[in-house]
Amino acid sequence: MEGDWLTYREAAERLGSTAEAVRYRALRGNWPRLRGNDGRARVQIPDDAHPVRTPCAHPVRTPSEPRSDHPALVETLKAQVSDLQAHIETLKGQLAAAEARTEKQATEFAERDTEHLAILTAEQAKREKAIAAFAALTERLDALAAERARPSWWRRLVG
């Protein structure tokens, strides 16, 4: 086995493969290997090694022929688009109805709030009037109590 000592990359170019594939082939086939002065591994390719094309990572895409069901597919898609547009219109109507209900409820709540505020204001006025009446009654009762607590004139004379 005489030949050049090649790096895995150089061997891959010569065999039409990848460096990784050549490394594995060298391991499996017990090809002579050594590390060069530059620190890179080198391999000697045997005379009976035949080139192997490794499939590339990205497969080649060939142009496809137009589909035979293309017109039917277009019609199906158009029907689906039409159905979706009808569904959108239905949803728009439902949204408008929901917005109208929301507006109506907001108006009703505002009217109820106004009514409740009027009731609360009237009740507050009644409470304030009752408090004022109780305050006046308290003053009258305090005056009567003070009058009763004072001794009468004849008791002051006798007493």
Q: Helical content, roughly?
A: 55-70%
Task: Assign an overall shape.
Answer: elongated
Q: Roughly how many Å apart are the termini?
A: 153 Å
Main sheet specs: 3 strands, antiparallel
Radius of gyration from the CA trace? 53 Å
Order of helices and strands: EHHEEHH
**Strand arrangement in the largest pleated sheet:** 1-3-2
The number of distinct β-strands equals 3
Q: Which stretches are poorly predicted, pLDDT < 50 over at least 5 residues? A: none
How many H/I helices? 4
Class per helix and strand makeup: mainly alpha
Beta-strand percent range? 5-15%
Average predicted confidence as pLDDT: 86
Describe the structure.
A hairpin with a 5-residue loop joins β2 (33-35) and β3 (41-44). The model has no long low-confidence stretch (mean pLDDT 86). The chain starts with a strand and ends with a helix. It has a domain at 5-44. α1 crosses α2. The protein is mainly alpha-helical and 159 residues long. The protein has four helices and three strands. The protein has a three-stranded antiparallel beta sheet with strand order 1-3-2.
